[in-house]
Amino acid sequence: MTFPTGQGTNGHPVRAPQGPVPPGPVAPAQNRPAQPGWVHQGGSRQGQVAAGPWAGPMGQAPGIGAPAQPPGAAVVAPGRVAPHAPGAAVVAPPLQHPAGPAPVPAWPVPAGDGPFAAASRRTPFPMLVLVELRKLTGTLSDRILLALAPIVLIGVTVLIHTGTDYASSYASAADQISPTFYTVRVGHLLLHAVLIKLIAGEWQHRSAQPTLLAQPSRARYFLAQATVLLMLWLVAAALQLVTTLLVAPGAVSGVGATYVLGHRTGWVVGVCVLGSLLTILVALTVAMLVPNAAGALAIYFATVPVMLTISGLAPKVFAWVDPSSATAALATLAPVEGPGPVVVSLLLWGGLLGLACYRVARRDLA
């Protein structure tokens, strides 16, 4: 047997066996194309040069020969043993790429100032509040109502304090604070109309869709609207308080009485703040229960006169459902003694507000 030599790709001599092939069965080659860099031993004869990264016997490195095999042994595919093979069968090792497994590319991370990072950034909460304030003045009618609301509040306060019904009954502190109590109940109607249009109109005109698409959290959306509501309440309460403190002393002194509330300013502040809070919560409850601006406004402006009428005709009965029962008790004008009407009224309207929040949280935008 002769072994002619040759020159490999790396400069080392390569010897290929020549002559007759030793007797013995040979496993059939597998039906796969030969790939460069893979050592395929399934269909090669014993001692045959295989394709691989090294030019040599069986595609191995120079100086490393093929493993010795007994005569008559067969080279079979990985994991298979040739049936009826004389002698011991040689199981080839599994195929492996010489360079190892290919690296898995990492998922691209957006840059810190790129468009993807800007799109995935969370909307700041002050921006949500500014959006809700912009909705508050989004239409011409909203701006007109906001401009007229302070004028109506001041006009109603002056009219009630200087009316003839109260001019002859300013002898006690309760009589002097009663105009403030009634002013709080009816002086904020236009401001409540703006709030109802904002809350109920969101679901009627589907203007809540872009807001919730920009930030899907309804909790942050509700908190932004609650912030706007808090701002409206503080403005209304401050305007009510300042107007009352400026108008009431002159109205009382004009009928020859002594203004005794000058030493009880905290009492006046409590009535104005609590009364404006309870009335604005009633408007909020109506707006959240009725997802239609026109319907919510009609219900609210129809309910307020009815409530005032019932409170004049049956005050002891209406005190149990009156949302202003706590304000009347603070102003010592409650028709029923004891905390019972106050507790029942707060539980009733608090439950309605909770029901309204539950319905809005599960309301569909489509």
From TrEMBL:
<feature type="transmembrane region" description="Helical">
    <location>
        <begin position="341"/>
        <end position="361"/>
    </location>
</feature>
<feature type="transmembrane region" description="Helical">
    <location>
        <begin position="182"/>
        <end position="200"/>
    </location>
</feature>
<protein>
    <recommendedName>
        <fullName>ABC-2 type transport system permease protein</fullName>
    </recommendedName>
</protein>
<keyword id="KW-1133">Transmembrane helix</keyword>
<feature type="region of interest" description="Disordered">
    <location>
        <begin position="1"/>
        <end position="61"/>
    </location>
</feature>
<keyword id="KW-0812">Transmembrane</keyword>
<feature type="transmembrane region" description="Helical">
    <location>
        <begin position="221"/>
        <end position="247"/>
    </location>
</feature>
<feature type="transmembrane region" description="Helical">
    <location>
        <begin position="267"/>
        <end position="290"/>
    </location>
</feature>
<feature type="transmembrane region" description="Helical">
    <location>
        <begin position="297"/>
        <end position="321"/>
    </location>
</feature>
<keyword id="KW-0472">Membrane</keyword>
<feature type="transmembrane region" description="Helical">
    <location>
        <begin position="144"/>
        <end position="162"/>
    </location>
</feature>
